[in-house]
Structures are given as C-alpha cells and as structure tokens.
Amino acid sequence: MKARLRVWFLWSWVITLPVTLLGGYWLYSTLDRFGTYNVRYQAVGSAVKNMALGAIGQYESEAIVHRVRTMLTQITHSPSALKAMHLFVPEAHLAQLQSHMPQSGFKYVRGRMLIDGKLRKMKFRYRGDSYYRWAWDKKSIRIKTSKKALLNGVRVANLLAARTEEQLNNYLSYKLAKLIGLLSPRSELIRLFLNGEDRGVYFFVEQINEMTLRHHARMPGDIYRGEIVAKDRYRDSGISNLFDSVSVWDKVAVNNHYPEQSVLPMERLLALLAQPGSPALEENMTELLDIEAWARYSVYEALTQSAHADNVHNWRIYYDPWRGKFVPIVWDPMGWRDTMRGKKLRSEIRASRLMVKLFLHDDFRRTRERLLREFFESGKDGEFMNFINRTVDVMSQEVLTDPLLKPASPVQVSEAMQKLQTHIGFVFKHFKADVFSDNQLLRKAKADSIVKRGKEKGVITWSGDVIIRGKQIINDLVIEPGTDVHMAAGASVIIRGRLQANGTELKPIRFLPVDSNSKPWGTIALVGPGANDSSLRHCEMSGGSGHKEVLVEYSAMLSVHDVQGVTIADCLFRDNRLVDDMVHAVYSDIRFERVTFNNALSDALDLDLSKVVITDSQFADSGNDALDLMTTEAFVSRSVFERSGDKGISVGESSDLFGVNNRLIDNQIGVQSKDRSTAILFNQSLKNNEIALHAYKKNWQYGTGGTIFLAKSIVSGGEIAARAQKQSQIHLFDSFVGGPFGGKRVTFVDTDDHARRDASSDQYLPDKGSGLAIIEERVEHLAKEQPAIWRLVNPNLRGARQFE
Amino acid sequence: MNSVVSRVDRLLLSKSRLRFVGNWMLMVSALFVLLLFLLFQKQEETINKVGSWVASAYKHSYAKDRKKAMVWAGSGDVHAVIKMLEQHDWQLVQLGDRSYPFKRELLLTLCEQLRLTQRYDELNAWASIWRKLEKRNVTALAYWYESLRHLSGGSQEGRRGLQREWARFPLNSHLTEFYAATLYESGDIQTARTILNQNGQAKATASLTGWQIHFGRYARELLPSYLDEFLYQLKVMDWPAVGGAWQRLWREATNSKVRRSRRKQRKMVAVNLQSNVEGLFSAVVEVPANITRFKIVPPPVIGLSITDMQLSMAGRVYNIPTSAVTVRGMVNHDGGVRVINSEPSVWFPLPAAARRAETETVSAELLFKITSARLMDHKRLSTSGSQSQ
C-alpha cells in the first residue's frame, strides 16, 4: 500500500502539472483582465457587474474550455460558409494597441488585408464606447483601407463583435432597415482571420460617411452625428440633450457648397423642436423633414422595438440640400434587445424629442399607419422571417467553430438566436394584428377623413407681360402662349406645383431680364413631387443665374429638383450668367426634345441622380461641359454637341450613357467617362475634338475608372482619338478612327483608318469572348428600356447619318 | 543560514528528493488554483468583494496623492503639483481611468493657479495636455484659448477662439468669464456685462430643470437599525425577540432575494423646481413609507449651490445638515453643497423618525435653496459699468 502510494505520488505530476499550468494561465488571464478593465479603467453601468472579478473568472474559465472544444470541432466540421476576411497586423502593432487598453486601442496601426486576392494596405484599430466592444477576447475593430483599394466600395468599416448572446440584433436590424427602404450602412456577416488565426464570426458594418450617400444614390450633403455619451460627451457644456443645442452635433459628411462650420439646417430643426405644437409648427416640420422617410423610420423603430436613438446618442441625420429635407440614417439600433429582456412591447417608440414632436404631426401619423399596413400587405414580414430563418441556420453552424464566441457556449447561443427569431415573429404578429384590427381600421378611416390643414392649392395663370421681383413661391402655374415673363435682378420663382408653360411656335413663352442692362435674375425652379408632369414647350430663357438660400441652393437658371415626368420641348436656353449651370436637374426624370442650349456660362445641362432622354437637341458654345452627368442614366440621340470649352458629354460618378446618332464637334474632349461610369455609343461622329474619347478615374470613392464602348462610328481630326488612363478602358468596334491613341487600355475590333462609311459587318457587338460581357449586358438592358432609341442604331453604317 | 543552504543543496542534489519536492510543489500549486477556481465558482460574491476592495485600494492611492496636491495648490506651491503630475504613474492616467477624475481636478486647479499667477506659457502647455486627454472638455478648451490670448502671436486666435466657443457653449462659466474679460479689456464693457447676465440667467433657468429625485431602501441604513434592535433585545434579555431581531438582521445582510427586492424598489422621478414664497425650492414626491434614503441629482450646472436642505414628511419637517449628506461631483461650500463637475449628486439617509409612517406610501417634500455662483469678474464689470456711466 505504501509502495503504491509512493508510486502514485511520484506520478502525480501528470495531473498536477497540467492543472497548475492551466490554472495558472486562467488566474493570470483573470487578474490581467480585471486589472486592466476594472481596477485601472473605471467600470460604469452594466460593466460594474459584468467586469467584476467573479464574472471575469467565469468568462476566462469558459473561454478556455470553449477554445479546446472548438479546436476539436474544427477538425470534424466543414469550413465556414461566411465570407472570409483576412487581416494582417504585425504583432508589435497589436502589442502597441494592447499597451494601455482601452485607450491605446483607439489609435490606428498599419497593417494589410486581402482585397480581391491582393494584399493591400489598411489601418487597423479597436473601436467602441463600451466595455463589451473591447474588453473581451473578441474585440470590435475598425479598418480603413487606402483610397486606391476599397473594400466593396467601402473605405472605413467596422467589424463588430456581438454584444448579446443572441448575436444578431444589429445585423438583422440593418437588414430590416434595408428591406423597409431606409438609409442604412452596408452590413454582412463575415469570418475574420487575423494573421491567419480564426477570430470567429464578425459583423461587418460600413462607417457612415459621404460614401454611404453615394451607395444610396443620394447627393453629397451634410450628415450630422449626434453622440454625447461616454468619451463623446461635452463635459462642462451644460448640455445634456442633443436636441438642446446644435453645438454638440458634428458632421461626418459635409456639403462643400456651404462652409464646413455651417450648421444652419440643424439649427433650424432644433429651433422648430423647441416650439410648442401648432399647425404652423406642423407646416414647418413638413418643410424641413422628409415626413415619409421619418414615418418609415418610426415604423422601423416599432418593428425592431429599438429606442436606441434617444436624446443622447446614436443619431445620424442626413440633410439633403437638393430636397431641403432631413432624412434619418439607421445607426446601431440593437433591435429587440430590450424587449427580449422583459421590456414591454411599445406600439410607438418616442425615445427622443424629435420623435415626440413628430408624433404630434397628423401627416406623419397617417403616413406611418399606411407604411405599417403596407409592410404587412406586401408580405415583407414573411420575407424577413425567411431571411432570419436562413441566417440562424447558418449561424448555428458557425458558432460551433467560433473560438472567441461569447457566451462561450454554442448551445446557449443557438438557443438565444432561436429565441430571437421567435421573438421577432411575436413582435410582427402583434403589430400585424394591431394594424388589421377593427379599431385600427376605424382609426384609419377617421384619419383619412380629416381634411388636411393648410392652404388650398390654387392654379395661377400668367399671360401677357408678367414682371417678377424678389422670390415668389407658387403652386400650380399655367403660362399662356405668348407670355413674356420679365424677371427683375435676383428675382426667382420657386414652383412647387405643376407648371404648364406651353407656348407655340408662333407664340413662344419668354423668360427674360426686365431690361437688357439689368443684373441677372435668379432661377425658375421646379421643386418636389407636386411639380410632377410639368412641361415647358416653345419657351425661351436667358439672362438668369441661380439662387442660393440658407438651406437650399438652386444652381441653374432652370432648376428641377425631385420632379418626375418633366417634358421640355422646342425650347431655347441661352446666355445664363454668374452661376455654373444653365439647366440643372437632380433626383428627376426629364425628357428634352428639340431643345437648344446656347452659350452657357459653364455647363449647359447638368444632371445629377436623374434619368433623362435627350433627342434632336443642340448644344453649342458651352463654357465648360455641354452635358454633365453624375449618377444619371441618359439616353441621347440625334443631338449635336459643339464647341464646348471642356467636354461635349461628361459621364461621371457611376452614370450610364447610351448614345445613338450624335455629332460631337470641336469640343475640348468629345466624350469622357470616369468613376465607374459607362458610355455606350453607336453611330457617332466625333470630329475635330482635341481628345475624342477619354476614360479615367477621378474620384477614389467609386473604386474604379470609366468605360467607353464606341461602335459603328467615325472619329476624325483632333489630337488624340482615344485615351484611357488607370482602371479605365475604351473599346472601339467597327469604326473608322483617325488619329493617335493614348494609354494601353484601348482595344480595337474591326477598327480601321479607312475613311469609309460602310460598316465591316452588320453585327451590333463584337463576337463573344472579346471581354465585353458587361457591355453586352448593358446593351441588352438599354435596348429593352428605350426600344425607340435602340431602333435608331444602324449596324451597317458608321457615323451619325441623319444629319447628312 | 549556512546550514539551511547546505540542507537545501543536499535535498536538490538527490534525484528522488528533487522529484519529491517538485511533486509536492506542484500538488500545492494545483490545490491552490483548484481552491481558487472553486471559490470563483461557489463564492462569487466574496470574490467580487475582494475585487471591489482591490479597485478601491488602487483608487485610494491616487486619492491620497490628489489630497496632498490640493493642499500644495492651496498654498500656492504649483511646482509640487506639476512635479507630481509629471510622475510616471500620473502621466499614464487617461480619460476613462478610475483615477482620471482626480487628474482632471488637479489639472483644473493647476490651470486656475497658473492663470491667476499669469504664467501663461505653462498654462498653455498644461491646457494642451488636458485638451489632448479630453477633446470634448469645454473647460480645458476655455483655458487653452485663454492662455493663447496672452501669448505673443496667439492673441488674435485666442480671442477668436473664446468668442467662437462661447457662442457654442454659453453655459460654461470659464468660457463666459474669459470671453467677458477679453471684451472688458477691449473696452466693450456693455457686451461683457450682457453676456455675464445672460450666463447668469441661463444658469438660473438650467438650474430649475432636469432635477432627479431617487429614493429607495439601502442596506447601509437598514443594517445599523436592525443591529441596534438586536443589541437592545440582547440587553433586555428578551430571548425570543433576540432570535427574531437576529433573523431579520441576517436576512437583510445575506439574502440575495431581499437584496434584489431592495434594488427593484428603488425609483427615480424627474422634477422641475418651483420656488415658494420663502424663496425655498421644493420637489414633492410620493414614496413608499419604508424607504431609507433620498438622493438628489441636480442639473450639471457648475457652481450651483444647494443650501438649507429640509425634508417634510408626514407633517414633520427635518433639517438636513451638510454633515449628514454624502456628495459626488459636489463639494461642501458655504454651509451647503456646490456642483463642481457634470455628474453631481447628493444623498442622505432618512432621519430615523421619518421612517415610522404607518401608511404604505407617504408624501415627501424636499425643500432647499439654490444659488448659482457669480463669475469672478462680474463684480469688477459691474463696478466698471457704473463708473463708465
């Protein structure tokens, strides 16, 4: 017995050594974490409980067990189904981040990441205000790529560690925001590898900035950020509510048409919110807030039961300078978190002064009810539940091999995700029942029967000689043929209703300065959906400029903001002054037929985020570009662009141009395509342009340059026929091209320098396999979209024919 | 000593003895970590208490330093304060750290001393350090611009900065005071007086809104009363009552359900103040009769003083002396308590007599006087103003 004890004792190290090592590691980790995040750093709020010594000890022991378990699971388990993201940060840099956590973690260090199979430079740091973002092994990260290599069009992104055991609150919340049609950051679930080591499931979220607006086809403008908690708090400012003072808001995107410090729109909004409820307040709120978007946001808050955007944090608000309205952006909603933890379900979330005021607004309430009903009627609830189902299925597998899962129990996490799914189903059911209940329908009927307050819309008619002074805001307007509208210096007309300015060939309508010596007048502006289906026929406009107000800018003699179905035919625009554009449209859908643009000060026709059809029009002697496109879809046919100071047609910032039978003559640059834009041109005649075709990358935010496809055309005269710079390409097919080429990125198929008009073949596009799949796809789409213009393409001939 | 060394040598020289010692050591270590592990599992509360003790001991070491430094600063020995702040452990303290509030307080005191002694170069250096630590501290910003204003080549920027930042944060006393001083120095006494008055008015308005009254049951007040009862029963030797009193004491001290229920019962009401004819401000709240403590959270208006505190409950009025209150973000000042940072609160236990209500709920009225601190230059400006008139 004694001998056996002796043997047992001598071999006891087999057990005691691993226990000591493991225990020592556990103890060291526990004390280290406790020392960093609770002794040295001040634990506040829920951190007091969650970062207590006992809780950390518990976490460390579970983490050790889980890591061993995942090592074993990873052997038998299939690889992750999520998109992998590989980051490489030198250990010395990681140590630098860890040196005085959490504060040291917020300073960027350099690293690299895999983007499109190549190692690209990036910056790396930890992020977040609260301990759950950086106190555990799985830390939330912010990365910033270089301008040269974006990550799916995103430069600054957050890789977030889950905050709750159900993991998916924010991910699902953002997906619902997208489904509902709100501005929200790009987001997806990924599997992160840091220096080759699996760090488990992360949640990728784009950082909100100007690029977010571009992704959502919104014009660049101010994005206000409202955060006054934790390290974002303005200490000793005496301001404890974001809606008390504009001083505590900052901007994460800036409208460069106004000074960077200008916060006038926000000032106006806060002043409105300080007023007591009244019909005037309601009217002013309608002016300043996109009520539909806010109602949508409120529906979203209710469906996610998120009260996370409150009086102190989580606000991102976009001010659209071209619509003159504030629009909410969803940020860190943490949907369903509180209600899953016992908080009562609320039909209306009023967590901030702004939302409280909005609920006093009749129109807002009506719109909100309609949108909520539409959400269920359209079956989006079912669609979303299916999405959750798929996500939970994928995640249940992913968490099995996530080495840094928190809580460190895949079973617990899977159950929590199931619970979240059930809970969302319950919330939707609750709202659905409420929306379609008898009471609600009765309320809706009542709400619809309320006569909308405000002025009745009256139609104003102008005829003969009309003199305009100062700024006039008008609803529906009819201008009789033969009317002369004499605009005094600086005078502007803002039309919020439908404009019918239909002159005739013999009796045109003219918008002219009061006298030939007077200073330029301002603008004629069509603004908002009320002006849909406006038309201008046989009109002449000259001597105007633009109009800039505190909150809105009209940058052209004729400005069209957010109006659909506008027709401008047989009109003449000429000799604008002072301001950049002669005609400018944004967020609009316009048709120009037989319109002449002469002698523009700078750009003749500037189109942003619009859709346009231009036929049989003439652009001559523009100071800068004749036609300037930004994120616009344009169909241009049978038109002439001549003697432009810069480009005949500028296709920029993710625009699509489809041109048939146009002539571009004596321009500095004939057609230029840049920044993820595509110009598809058939039967063009480009003559004596200094550079006929030019493609390049100008704005890094679009990630790539431009593309031009020119077929069945003639390029002659000028210095350079085609030049394609970095990340851009020009394809020439079955064309006569006379002149030298610049850059290596120009391809030729059946192109020659014989000045003949007959095409080599009757093919519309080169044979398959010539690397033009995207062009083929676009052509197919364009042909479907505008068959009349597509029919103008003549595959047997080169150049623009109808002019000869 | 030599014999001990030689015995250890002999022990280690023998292989089997070495194994013996090694195994013993490993066994002790393993037992130690296992014991600790079990403690973490089974006695989490005790472990947390140890953790809290470690954290407060850490904080206490900085609190001691801070106390010393405040004395130095009070006696004008700025050099000693600077020397301390330049020590390695103080240099490491950053925003968010447990000891940062002390550092902030020291920086504020130091900046004020440097300003008063017109050592603007040093003021600029320390205000810069403060600004780097806390980008959104308006007071740090105020000191920085104020120092800049007095440095050659920076006076324009300093003046403009004060003007711009004051327009953003007119409620900050330091900004107001410094900006008023620039106006005063440039001869614009009327505007200086106006902004001081505006600041006074704004502060007065802000002082009336956003008050919070917290109330609830707390072990810190309950346990002594149960202990008193227990000792009293022991003294009179009423043994059944001793048993009952002990049970109550034990239950209150250790039962987690009781603790949770105490926490659940704690409530807060937000109130705006209104003054009565005597110039006292009051807040009336309906509270459960068994509460033991009131906490008042005033709005974060720096310089706001609370004096003459009274509590009226069940027809009786109790005076609350400053010696009976505990403050955070506030200091004792002129017979009352005064807000010194943006997280102020003051709490006091309910007087024993007030806990004897027979109804379930009772109406409690808190009465006190409030005053806002007048800015230093106000008097000077008023005098100048009257002179100029």
Biggest interface goes to: A-B, 43 and 53 residues
Kindly state the percentage of residues in helix of chain B. Answer: 55-70%
What's the total number of strands of chain A?
Answer: 50
Number of β-strand runs of chain B: 12
Q: Which spans of chain B of ≥5 residues are poorly predicted at pLDDT below 50? A: 382-389
Q: Major β-sheet of chain A, in short?
A: 13 strands, parallel
Q: Major sheet of chain B, described briefly?
A: 7 strands, antiparallel
Write down the oligomeric state. Answer: heterodimer
Structural class determined from secondary elements of chain B? alpha+beta
Strand percent estimate of chain B: 15-25%
Order of secondary-structure elements of chain B = HHHHHHHHHHHEHHHEEEEEEEEEEEH
Report low-confidence residues of chain A grouped into runs of 5 or more.
451-455
Strand residues, percent of chain A: 25-35%
The residue-averaged pLDDT of chain A reads 90
Report on the architecture of this protein.
The complex is a heterodimer of chains A (804) and B (389). With 804 residues, chain A is an alpha/beta fold. Among the domains of chain A are: 2-76, no CATH class; 455-601; 637-804, no CATH class. In chain A, 28% of the residues lie in helices and 29% in strands. In chain A, the strands form six sheets. In chain A, strands 12-15-18-21-26-29-32-35-38-41-44-47-50 form a 13-stranded parallel sheet, covered by helices on one side. In chain A, a hairpin with a 2-residue loop joins strand 6 (187-194) and strand 7 (197-206). The longest helix of chain A is centred in the N-terminal third of the chain and has 28 residues, at 13-40. Chain A starts with a helix and ends in a 14-residue tail after the last helix. By secondary structure, chain B is α+β, with helices and mostly antiparallel strands. Chain B folds into four domains: 2-42; 118-208, Serine Threonine Protein Phosphatase 5, Tetratricopeptide repeat (Alpha Horseshoe), CATH 1.25.40; 211-216 and 266-389; 218-265. Chain B is built from 15 helices and twelve strands. Chain B has helices spanning 2-13, 15-42, 44-74, 78-85, 88-91, 100-116, 120-133, 138-149, 155-168, 173-185, 189-208, 219-236, 239-254, 256-265, 376-388, and strands at 211-216, 267-271, 274-275, 281-288, 293-297, 305-313, 316-319, 326-328, 330-333, 336-339, 345-349, 361-371. In chain B, strands 3, 4, 6, 7, 9, 10 and 12 form a seven-stranded antiparallel sheet that branches. In chain B, strands 2-1-5-11-8 form a five-stranded antiparallel sheet. In chain B, helix 3 (44-74) runs parallel beside helix 6. The chains are: A alpha/beta (804), B alpha+beta (389). The interface between A and B is large, with 43 and 53 residues.
